[in-house]
Amino acid sequence: GENVEQHPSTLSVQEGDSAVIKCTYSDSASNYFPWYKQELGKRPQLIIDIRSNVGEKKDQRIAVTLNKTAKHFSLHITETQPEDSAVYFCAANNAGNMLTFGGGTRLMVKP
Amino acid sequence: GAVVSQHPSWVICKSGTSVKIECRSLDFQATTMFWYRQFPKQSLMLMATSNEGSKATYEQGVEKDKFLINHASLTLSTLTVTSAHPEDSSFYICSARDQAGHKFGSGTRLTVV
Q1: Pairwise CA distance, residues B70 & B22, whole Å
Q2: Do A34 and B107 touch (CB under 8 A)?
Q3: pLDDT tens digits, residue range A16-26?
Q4: Which residues of A touch B102 (CB under 8 A)?
Q5: Which residues, 6 or more positions from A33, have their beta carbon under 8 angstroms from its beta carbon?
């Protein structure tokens, strides 16, 4: 089955700096890669996603890149703000529409 | 947009009792729903795939007789934790996929005492 690895597990940045979280996946049939932000005790919130026919997608301060050949995808947050502090999960969606999640990254943005 | 409703939000039960969690797709039909479990400070782990009108598909290591799944209609899937024990205490989340992507329920915090 699919295996998704996510790094780093924790990330601390100064407000205004950029944050980058990286994921790898194993199943070449996976075709959809969402990123979620989860606050304590809440449901995951989709923040951006990318499909396998696209290499990059941007939405304001958030961007995602995908390298299908290397099976890598990354989340980039620019101009970080304290409210960006949360746990972020990458995920890969395989042909069976199942989501496999990465281990999560706890992002802390210091004011 | 499409919404997935999950109830209850939290439940405390005694060891040995059973707890039922409901997951509803409010404005779309979901032939497939997914159940996840999330322990503190860990990721979401897929437990099973719920299929409308047929048996659920369980992930390796998940006991099907302990976690009973019923998907009797296109908008409702239920997860029953039978004979609950303290180690079953966790955050359970369901999801369903519509054309835009996966929609998650609000989660159920289960505490077994």
Answers
A1: 10
A2: no
A3: 999 999 999 99
A4: 34, 46, 93, 99
A5: A23, A25, A49, A50, A51, A52, A64, A66, A73, A90, A91, A92, A93
